[in-house]
């Protein structure tokens, strides 16, 4: 007798709820095609219940002392550490990345949870005493109300943890919509959050596709929306949420470049390039997808190809795996189509990753490391965000020429320079037009003391996720000007001017 496939639950008002929907999607192990769960597309009524629960919970949660909120997140980070192996195994089964990379996914989110436990200092206001005769002015940062987050498939632990811990720590309540392709680890994190002490209604989780996204954008009780995902969907979310009067921050597509100067540390640079280009099968918004070799560094191309050839392709749970499968058959077909288009448009295929044989996982969505040289700006492999293990290699005669290539690209998520020259690094960090810059660091995602700062076509909204910027995003600054009188200070007469004297 076949084992029944489990169903993913909704989280509404502190309870795990079986959806009443008639619309379900399969959660598929991308290494085997096994259906490991079924995820509901929440009904309009279920979405309304989640919003109502969040709105009701806000009335008490916003009054909860900062110290009490912080202690919940201290407990939450301990629970995540305790369940790290379980969470990583679940993430690998549904998303495909290697166990080591899955742990990294969780750990980078855990850092934000730890930062949320410091909310007491992050949410402090300012005070200026005696700005006029007996007048003080001060600011407080108050929560907005119900906030929402829409997260992608590629980081099903880290990106949800970018969102709801900081929003909730600031005194808001939250509705999370994870990717329907891999929601199981997100739900386990939500369960641990309840175990840590987050009250009913403060965190709610709904599942679904475009209908649920639109419901989040439209709902009048939701005050702010945070999004990470594709440019197409992110642009839609930003426009629709903004028109509905909400705050919105949308982290979107990318085409991240690295420049390699001839004086760079050769072995270390090649290792970094291969890891950043092909790790997570290239399914990172900060993946290194373009390398610009400057001058004599063009001679490094054969060694870069050899590095790529050493990486082991297998199911993420297999020992020694470096690269797991892509998330779906559709994603695999798209990546392979773009590789074929690159050949047709004249790029030189230095390493072809199509059709790798992975014993025991013949049905997996595998594409191996792929390297193109001779890539130009007009080619589809350069213009499109491939979101697969495909590296485009370009050449430039100088650092100035290489920077011009980067600045001409419409996206501005991240970039990196490999060099041992402080002067070159100084020029690069000042002149390059990208939000996150690495110097000998291939994926320069900031730690939570700072904020994720993608720019240009990679971002809509002024404030980025986590760090100081997201505290501003999830709170309203209120400025208070106060004067207290005693009998001796009372003056006679009516003052009709704007002066505070």
TrEMBL record:
Keywords: NAD, Oxidoreductase. One of its GO terms (biological process) is L-valine catabolic process. Pfam families: Aldedh. InterPro entries: Ald_DH/histidinol_DH (IPR016161), Ald_DH_C (IPR016163), Ald_DH_CS_CYS (IPR016160), Ald_DH_N (IPR016162), Aldehyde_DH_dom (IPR015590), MeMal-semiAld_DH (IPR010061). Residues 18-480 form the Aldehyde dehydrogenase domain. One of its GO terms (molecular function) is methylmalonate-semialdehyde dehydrogenase (acylating, NAD) activity. It is an enzyme of class 1 (oxidoreductase). Its EC number is 1.2.1.27. Belongs to the aldehyde dehydrogenase family. NCBIfam families: MMSDH (TIGR01722). PANTHER family: MALONATE-SEMIALDEHYDE DEHYDROGENASE (PTHR43866), METHYLMALONATE-SEMIALDEHYDE DEHYDROGENASE [ACYLATING], MITOCHONDRIAL (PTHR43866:SF3). This is methylmalonate-semialdehyde dehydrogenase (CoA acylating). It comes from Pseudoduganella aquatica. The lineage of its organism: Bacteria, Pseudomonadati, Pseudomonadota, Betaproteobacteria, Burkholderiales.
């Amino acid at each position: 007798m076949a084992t029944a496939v489990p169903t993913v639950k909704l989280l509404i008002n502190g309870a795990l709820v079986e959806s009443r929907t008639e619309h379900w999607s399969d959660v598929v192990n991308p290494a085997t095609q096994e259906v490991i769960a079924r995820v509901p597309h929440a009904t309009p009524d279920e979405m309304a219940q989640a919003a109502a629960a969040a709105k009701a919970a806000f009335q008490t949660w916003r009054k909860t002392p900062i110290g009490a909120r912080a202690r919940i997140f201290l407990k939450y980070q301990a629970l995540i550490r305790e369940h790290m192996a379980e969470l990583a195994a679940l993430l690998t089964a549904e998303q495909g990345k290697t166990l080591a990379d899955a742990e990294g996914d969780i750990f980078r989110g855990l850092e934000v949870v730890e930062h949320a436990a410091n909310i007491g200092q992050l949410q402090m206001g300012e005070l200026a005493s005696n700005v006029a005769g007996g007048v003080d002015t001060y600011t407080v940062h108050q929560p907005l109300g119900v906030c929402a987050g829409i997260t992608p498939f590629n980081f099903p632990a880290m990106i949800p943890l970018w969102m709801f811990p900081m929003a909730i720590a600031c005194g808001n309540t939250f509705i999370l919509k994870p990717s329907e392709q891999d929601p199981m680890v997100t739900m386990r994190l939500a369960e641990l959050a309840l175990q840590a002490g987050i009250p009913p209604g403060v965190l709610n989780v709904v599942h679904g596709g475009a209908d649920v996204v639109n419901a989040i954008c439209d709902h009048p009780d939701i005050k702010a929306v945070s999004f990470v995902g594709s440019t197409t969907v992110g642009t839609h979310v930003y426009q629709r949420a903004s028109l509905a009067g909400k705050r919105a921050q949308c982290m979107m597509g990318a085409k991240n470049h690295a420049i390699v100067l001839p004086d760079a540390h050769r072995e270390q640079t090649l290792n970094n390039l291969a890891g950043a280009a092909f790790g997570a099968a290239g399914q990172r918004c900060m993946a290194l997808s373009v390398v610009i070799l400057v001058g004599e560094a063009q001679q490094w191309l054969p060694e870069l190809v050899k590095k790529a050839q050493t990486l082991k392709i297998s199911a993420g749970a297999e020992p020694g795996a470096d690269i797991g499968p892509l998330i779906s058959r559709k994603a695999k077909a798209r990546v392979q189509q773009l590789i074929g288009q690159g050949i047709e448009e004249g790029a030189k295929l230095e390493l072809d990753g199509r059709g790798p044989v992975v014993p025991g996982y013949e049905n997996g969505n595998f594409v191996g490391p792929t390297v193109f040289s001779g890539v130009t700006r007009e080619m589809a492999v350069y213009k499109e965000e491939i979101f697969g293990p495909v590296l485009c290699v370009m050449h430039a005669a100088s650092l100035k020429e290489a920077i011009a290539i980067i600045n001409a690209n419409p996206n501005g998520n991240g970039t990196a320079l490999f060099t041992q020259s402080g002067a070159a690094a100084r020029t690069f960090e000042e002149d390059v037009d990208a939000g996150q810059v690495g110097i000998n660091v291939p994926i320069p995602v900031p730690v939570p003391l700072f904020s994720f700062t993608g720019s240009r076509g990679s971002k809509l909204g002024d404030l980025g996720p986590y760090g100081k910027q997201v505290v501003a995003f999830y709170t309203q600054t209120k400025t208070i000007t106060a004067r207290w009188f005693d009998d001796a200070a009372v003056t006679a007469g009516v003052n009709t001017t704007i002066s505070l004297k």
